[in-house]
Amino acid sequence: MKEREPCVYILSNGKHGTLYAGVTSDLIARLYQHRTGLIKGFTSRYGVARLVYFERFEDMPSAILREKQLKKWNRSWKINLIEENNPEWLDLAIDLGFERVKAR
């Protein structure tokens, strides 16, 4: 993965757990922020740090448009999207060089 690449991502705190959708131009840096609690708010409050889905885009406007679309989706649509691509809800961040997130 390139260092700077527009991405939409979904984090969870476990299979069928709390979901968070976001957008970034640097997925590695953003994951570090989420996983170390540097971003205060929803994700740190609920322990939402497992990367269960992400999409890469050519440009930020396209990624932002997709994030807005996902945020409007109901929960079951997001779960279906995750399970189509990651049926075991594996933490995809591990393949990007991160250690496993400790259970809360």
TrEMBL record:
Coiled coil: none
Xref: SMART domains: GIYc (SM00465)
Keyword entries, A-Z: Endonuclease, Hydrolase, Nuclease
CDD domains documented for this protein: GIY-YIG_unchar_3
Any Pfam family the entry gives: GIY-YIG
Listed name of the protein: Putative endonuclease
Organism: Sphingobium boeckii
A single GO molecular function term of this UniProt record: endonuclease activity
GIY-YIG domain span: 4-81
Family as reported in the entry's similarity comment: Belongs to the UPF0213 family.
